[in-house]
Amino acid sequence: MLESVAAASSHGLSTPTETSDAAPPPTLRLLTCGSVDDGKSTLIGRLLFEQSLIFDDHFAALERDSKRHGTTGDDIDFALLVDGLEAEREQGITIDVAYRYVSTPRRAFIIADTPGHEQYTRNMATAASSASLAILLVDARKGLLTQTCRHAAIVSLIGIRHVVLAVNKIDLTGFDEAGFNKIVADFKAFAATLGFASITPIPISARHGDNVSEKSANTPWHKGPALLSFLETVEVEEDQSAKPFRFPVQWVNRPHLDFRGFAGTIASGTVRPGDEIVVAGSGKTSKVARIVAADGDLASAGAGEAVTLTLADELDIARGDLLSDAKSRPDVSDQFAAHLIWMSEDKLMPGRSYLLKSGAKTVPVTVTELKHRIDVNTLGQLPARTLSLNEVGVCNLATASPIAFDPYADNHTTGSFILIDRATNATAAAGLVSFGLRRATNIHRHGLSIGKLDRARLNNQKPAVLWFTGLSGSGKSTISNLVESWLFAHGLRTVLLDGDNIRHGLNKNLGFTEVDRVENIRRVGEVAKLMTDAGLIVLCSFISPFAAERQLVRDLLDDGEFLEVFVDTPIEECIARDPKGLYKKAIAGEIKNFTGVDQRYEAPLNPEMIVARDGQTPQQAAAAIVKELIRRGFIDSFADPGDDFSI
Amino acid sequence: MKSILSPHLLRLEAEAIFIMREVVAEFERPVMLYSIGKDSGVMLHIAQKAFFPAKPPFPLLHVDTTWKFQEMIAFRDQTAARVGMELLVHINEDGVRRGVSPVASGSSVHTQVMKTEGLRQALDKWKFDAAFGGARRDEEKSRAKERIFSHRSTAHAWDPRNQRPELWNIFNTRIKPGESMRVFPLSNWTEIDVWDYIAAEEVPIVPLYLAKERPVVERGGALIMVDDDRLPLLPGETPRMEKVRFRTLGCYPLTGAMRSEASTLPEILAEMRASTMSEREGRLIDHDESGSMEKKKREGYF
Ligand SMILES: Nc1nc2c(ncn2[C@@H]2O[C@H](COP(=O)(O)OP(=O)(O)OP(=O)(O)O)[C@@H](O)[C@H]2O)c(=O)[nH]1
Ligand SMILES: [Mg+2]
Composition bias, kind Polar residues: at what positions (chain A) (predicted)? Predict the structure, then answer.
């Protein structure tokens, strides 16, 4: 061992550009992972040593340290090159990630050496989040351990697609081929559902250097490459520039009144002056005017570049907004499903308020439902009420205000987030968005024209619930808004519960399955009842497809208080209008459980009122409803509305 | 003039810009530590780009140990004038009164009092909640373990065993009153990257980095430059002129020079690639013991 030290005394740094004229492959970011003591740090140390990347003074220190802290008898302990913290050297384990920078004549590498110890799994996840390849080490004598599986699962979850299965300490099994093959087979079976694009098994000895930089004569049966030559040539990068444009606004640059630029790093796609962009949250669009850079404006910029954009129009844009390709927009939602990797000693508390940071946006968030935890040994699902340190779970989250995002599978930048404990400021979890929950994604808010204080004005009226039911796009909200406006204008106290608006708050956690629709209506009914108790005229506008639930609300209220208004616009007309583009999506199968398409609508048999038939306009419908309220004595007849509000 | 950066350097530059913008957006009173060295120079250069056309919205801070090379101080003042940013200079007056100096007190006391304590005083005095530093992970094995956003307690201490996980490019910047963050935009740069970048972008550097005939004495294997008459010469020592340069710049009696013929950037790069010694080898303060950098950092050293 020590003879080779002398041979390596001419240490030199090289950069990939030195020896070849062709463009070198891009810098490879990778990590080592696997169970404790499997030899991760030793491997990195060995690689640095063999690539002559250890300075003489560092090597002298390593020799001294090996005598003092070494785990390898009289030999050099290469792990001490990377285990830089005192506690690590004393205990002979890795606690936190070490980043090392290696350049060979063929490629530059950023290598993260991670701890195998279960307690420090979060540090391994930290390293994985910026890597595109993982070297998963397994001790040839021990085979797959729980921690090997956990690391493999995290590597897969974080989206790393290429794995080197380094079966280490092969020297200690006498370079046994059968043992190696068994571990490879076990791992391939375990990883079958993990979706790796490539798994490259290599038998190595980190300590003695077999198959590290060069192929070893001790393993003639190994037909694959040595580790280094594989790493120098493997292609891992996905082309982020080919994806839709995403630009999280990090900072608004406003040096003087004539300049307003949006500084940020392009998460994906490319941008050119003239491109149409949309501010995902507000839906406002504009065109890119300039791509400003210190050395002069750019003609285009792509993923990964830190630039400053100016727009053709004065839009209200702040830090945290996401500028996107107008033709390919992200989800905007206050609810989504995600994987969480829990990173705090304090357990997850569903229902508790955390801060979510995604891109440049920070919003309060709660976990509304923890669906299950992942068993790292079997990758199966376990029921769970909480998540503890280093556990992985699947859950639904609800943010205090809508945020723009993409599924993590599509975009690692706009699909990732962290949770922060509001009391301790600790990073509590890493999150990966699976998908937006449809109920939030496709609901567009209706602006209510009347404020709460206005409604508080007292007047002569009888409380009632006006229940508007009908298909999506039939005009319920439009008509009920008109009716409320009229009532308000005449000094009456009203409140409007809207199918869309109530789902942003009270019923955030409900979807559109039959079960959820039932619960949705039940809650609205209870609220409406409380409002009538307060003396209000309550306008409720919900698709409410099932007769049984409408009956349930009727039963909650006093006799005669419930007025069912059937907004009977034919389905063909609703599909033709399709104001929110939802029918199109539903017919294409992108939305499930959509009323009128793949879920039934039970038309009312004895409604108090039917409107919108035979081409009746919303104005005419509203006038008819008000007349009916007067006729039934809910409001005074002091003002006849006429037959049509539009006149 | 527009330089052509390699994809590797472009990515490192973009990462540094992202980090700087994040700090400016999330902290109330950021400051950039400016130590006059090559890393500070690169950091400052990138800051000009990050906020263009605005000026970087934070001041520069130099913690002056009063033992910097004269050329460094001159370069510092020129640089601040050139970039048009406010330059704050802090000297630990208490240390000066007590007569602390590398000559009289030895390197570790001098560094502790004039640098570490001086820095803490300055951060407290101006109530900075985030401070940029030019440290790189490849400099030293405990730095290789440090996060880009490195949380400090109210006593400025680093807790290496309890660092916040740092995922993707999402940085948890939240701190409690009195706590602060040290931020290292050049974490992932190597020494070679820094020089490649300086060459490509024509970043101004202190002439001490380039070889020139300078008066030196040889002590304990290190070449010490006689920068002024504060360095007491030992019996038998006479300064002689040698062609030397500095690979790293600290306080002058604590920084060893190296014999070199490299008086241009390309020559420096060539010399660097052939070097077998680490950069901090010339820093006498690091040699005390193997874990000494970690110890200093836990106490609030940069
Ligand atoms: N014989 C032999 N021993 C090895 C080999 N690789 C590592 N070791 C020894 O295994 C022990 C643990 O090695 P480390 O590199 O510290 O293991 P690690 O995976 O980094 O451990 P953690 O980071 O704490 O999870 C050390 O004593 C190494 O010298 C190998 O290929 N052969
Ligand atoms: Mg280790």
Answer: 11-20
